[in-house]
Amino acid sequence: MAATSLVPTPAKTPTPFRPYRRSSPAVNSADPNSRPNSLRTSCAANIVNGSPTALEQASKKPWPKFFESTIPTENAASRNRIKLFSGSANPALSQEIASDLGVELGKVKRKRFADGEIYFQLEESVRGCDVYLLQPTCPPVNDNLMELKIMIETCWSSSAKSITAVQSREPITARIAARDISRANHVLVCDIHSLQSIGYFDIPVDHVQCEPVILDYLASKGLHSSNMVVVSPDVGGVARARAFAKKLGDAPLAIVDKRRHGHNIAEVMNLIGDVRGKVAILVDDMIDTAGTITKGAELLHKEGAKEVYACCTHAVFSPPAIERLSSGLFQEVIVTNTIPVADENYFPQLTVLSTATLLAETIWRLHNEYSVSSIFR
């Protein structure tokens, strides 16, 4: 696989994101170390012998080959290389990210033994490379987390320069997962359920907010803050809903007050705020069984909401989520592809937005040491 030139621009302000393109290394005539091997050899011969004529004379004599270099010509400009490897959790998103970056996914050999054990092997070198492992810990969570651990261990033992785990979503057992992937140098996660979970990690964590993807989509539908209200489906999501409303031009905020009587069972009690005659936007980080968000939608219709939209990042869709979401309560259910949505889980009101470009730019900024948080300001 040809190496890719990824030299950051010297400007203090990052240039607009552009997909990577393969190119020949730049040659700096003043720096012998930046030249291809043939030019570097010529330069060295000139310095040692003192004149170009000495090089011409030397080229006519047989040189003993004590060592013959196999370093590719592009190596001088590609010491800080990038490699992307996809796990089996979300290969479609991984391919989109690689396409947006203009690189190819790394070659791997992956299979399962008869007893279900995962086998993972790199089929190309990662020595000295910045490696990004695209493996969200989505259902089946245990299998995907174990596969991510194996991928990290394989790259670590293969002398990768740095390893970044692109998880997309953190599992419920965030503390255990954080400890299990500690061989990585960096973690990238989308819309983490609780920001306090970042404290479980002993390595740097970048939190990618998928709000821009959803906000751009809502803007394309012509929805305006004057006729909408952002709704948090529970008290725990108020901060998320408030930030979402602020980016929608300081739209009004409402809160669904509920009390949980058991695991995955939620009972809606009352609504704080006014939604009468308005378009209600329910905002959450994930939809699991859809109990919380459908109970909230029922209450919003009862309180006089004109239309109800659901906007969530992670589409877990555990049964009976599809039955609840497709019951007619929602004008539209908007999710992203951080978790792959199975074909049988599609229904007419469902819209799946791609986070590939957002994640590609985040990876590009991480690799070139630019600010990530500035994307979300």
Automatic annotation (TrEMBL):
<keyword id="KW-0547">Nucleotide-binding</keyword>
<dbReference type="InterPro" id="IPR029057">
    <property type="entry name" value="PRTase-like"/>
</dbReference>
<feature type="region of interest" description="Disordered">
    <location>
        <begin position="1"/>
        <end position="40"/>
    </location>
</feature>
<keyword id="KW-0545">Nucleotide biosynthesis</keyword>
<feature type="domain" description="Ribose-phosphate pyrophosphokinase N-terminal">
    <location>
        <begin position="82"/>
        <end position="166"/>
    </location>
</feature>
<dbReference type="GO" id="GO:0005737">
    <property type="term" value="C:cytoplasm"/>
</dbReference>
<keyword id="KW-0479">Metal-binding</keyword>
<keyword id="KW-0808">Transferase</keyword>
<protein>
    <recommendedName>
        <fullName>ribose-phosphate diphosphokinase</fullName>
        <ecNumber>2.7.6.1</ecNumber>
    </recommendedName>
</protein>
<comment type="similarity">
    <text>Belongs to the ribose-phosphate pyrophosphokinase family.</text>
</comment>
<keyword id="KW-0067">ATP-binding</keyword>
<dbReference type="InterPro" id="IPR005946">
    <property type="entry name" value="Rib-P_diPkinase"/>
</dbReference>
<dbReference type="Pfam" id="PF13793">
    <property type="entry name" value="Pribosyltran_N"/>
</dbReference>
<feature type="compositionally biased region" description="Polar residues">
    <location>
        <begin position="25"/>
        <end position="40"/>
    </location>
</feature>
<dbReference type="InterPro" id="IPR000836">
    <property type="entry name" value="PRTase_dom"/>
</dbReference>
<dbReference type="GO" id="GO:0000287">
    <property type="term" value="F:magnesium ion binding"/>
</dbReference>
<dbReference type="GO" id="GO:0004749">
    <property type="term" value="F:ribose phosphate diphosphokinase activity"/>
</dbReference>
<dbReference type="InterPro" id="IPR029099">
    <property type="entry name" value="Pribosyltran_N"/>
</dbReference>
<keyword id="KW-0460">Magnesium</keyword>
<dbReference type="GO" id="GO:0005524">
    <property type="term" value="F:ATP binding"/>
</dbReference>
<dbReference type="GO" id="GO:0006015">
    <property type="term" value="P:5-phosphoribose 1-diphosphate biosynthetic process"/>
</dbReference>
<dbReference type="GO" id="GO:0016301">
    <property type="term" value="F:kinase activity"/>
</dbReference>
<dbReference type="GO" id="GO:0002189">
    <property type="term" value="C:ribose phosphate diphosphokinase complex"/>
</dbReference>
<keyword id="KW-0418">Kinase</keyword>
<dbReference type="Pfam" id="PF14572">
    <property type="entry name" value="Pribosyl_synth"/>
</dbReference>
<dbReference type="GO" id="GO:0006164">
    <property type="term" value="P:purine nucleotide biosynthetic process"/>
</dbReference>
